[in-house]
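Minutes, methods subgroup
Present: GH (chair), OT, SY

1. OT presented the first of two proteins processed in the latest run. Sequence and structure tokens recorded below as shown on screen.
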Amino acid sequence: MTASAPPPDPAPTDPSNTPWSGPARHLFGSSLAVRLLRVILGCYLVVAVAVTGVQVFTEYRSAHQRLEADIRAMERTFGEGLADALWNFNAGVLRGILRGVAEMPVVTGAELRDEHGGMVERVGGQVGGEEGAKRWPALFDRPFERRFDLVYTDENRRPHRVGHWIVRSNDGIALDQVKETLIVILINSLLKTLALLAIFSVVVYRMVGRPLAEIGAFVTGLDARSLGARPLRLRARGHHELHLLAGVFNAMAAKLRRAFDDNAALLHDLQEANATLQARVEERTRDLERLAVTDPLTGLSNRRALDEALADAVREEGAGLSLILADIDHFKAINDRHGHAVGDAVLVALAGALGDAARPGDRLGRWGGEEFVILCPSTDLAAAQALAESMRLRVSETEIAGVGRRTCSFGVAARAAGESVDGLLVRADAALYAAKHAGRDRVETAGPSPALDRRSAA
């Protein structure tokens, strides 16, 4: 019978005044005590079923191990006789031994084969035959077989493999051997379950059922308007934990009444704080994403961003792509003579000059140290060379406080069909170093087969 929630009562009710009174009412009724009883019994049944299942499986495993041991013992008992009879081609002895094996309670069949696998003798059934008819569930009633080699030892103590024999059995035999024990275990579990059901019904009804019914009626009648208006009074005798629970309910109702208004104000504050925090998190996320791809000194794209942009551009089939590498001439001398602060100022000033000369759509970034990369999509070698020359002039005309005018060397390469990112970078780098060795402050373009050795320049 499915339990349903009782309707709210205006006042606590006494379960003893209803037509369904006593343990029977709490066993089949719909009170809170019934739910408690069902939970207790449900937990017990789960444990009982699990324990009983473990006992049944343990008994079955023990019987199966005994069955396996009995079958393995047959090798020592009959193996030598079968090997001797097979060696001497004594068909009568072979047949007699195999029949003796098949008549054993743990055996459903046996067969003998020579060293070439040919059938010599068979008695009983085969695996999956009539002797495997299901008497038990498939988990416990499974046919199986064990194979034993036959080795004959002659008078000179030399072994001769003469064949093998197979013993067939069924797990259901093991279960037959312990079925009486399993029946006792199941009956014992059932009797304990019935006894505990009766005991729990009486105890829950007398000690918990009636007080819980009053508490349930009180809790059911609570709402925001009646909260704290009527205290809970248990009519049960004595003073135990349920009376303390009633006092806690009364105190809780009073506190909740006072807390409702405070909670509304706190919720409003929390919503405002959450909105502010979310806005700050989004702003910080945008800053971190920008910093991850930006050089902190010049504000240009960093190497990570340039690597991704270069890889994306190379993947675009049919789109022309040129690459310009720019390197500040004699930058180490600036740092050594004027200090790194001035060196940083030079980097910032020349990055601005390169950016002023770049075209819309070009991607300018700091490659590292004093090197810059200009990624020129849809640009052939001649156009990229002209752009690099305009950048060279713009840099050479830029006046920098403390160091005057500086120059840059440029290497230009246009991507060949099917060329990889690394190949394009190597050729542009080779052109840059050619510009360095040719006197600096100049633009060099990469040929189709540039030298890959990188040589240092002062």
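2. SY then presented the second protein from the same run.
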Amino acid sequence: MSPEQTPGKLLIFTAPSGAGKTTLVRHLLQKFGQLAFSVSATTRPPRPGEEDGVDYHFLSLEEFRRRVAEGAFVEYEEVYPGRFYGTLHSEIERIRAAGRTVVFDIEVKGATNIKKHYPEDSLAVFVAPPSREVLFQRLRDRSTEDAESLRVRIARAAEELEYCHRFDRVLVNDELPAALAEAELIAREFLAI
């Protein structure tokens, strides 16, 4: 195993929806070959262009509940009514067995649960918007929701912003090039490269 590999580590990126964590995680995955993405499971239907096993493990509500009962999840949550998200033990074990560092793009409560489960092996980064107003505008600009689901998403984002000080680092995503550079620096320090 080369000195660049740090098996067993977990790099957690979390944020309210619309703060930009997915963009940062995708950039880091392209930049650092020793990182591997933890694919979450969800009961929501795929969006156009999403692939099962790549973007998410898309499960029926019945299958998700069966796996919960079997203890298959490190963490899971009903993020929106009837919409569950979770991290499978098997996903983390698959990446660690390959000698790679697990990277998460995960909602806030799930991130706190993973951090509790792996306190010594993880670094949790909260991606914050420059302001609440900017975040809410980003969510409106997506145009992927009807009025009611947008209202629920904005209310949840407002609640999640209160969690920012529970994490190891806060990265403000105001100007994308600066946020990408800061994310790279955080990853380099964590991976000791």
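Chair's summary of item 2: Helices lie at 21-31, 61-69, 89-97, 108-117, 132-142, 147-161, 176-191.
Next meeting: continue with the remaining queue.
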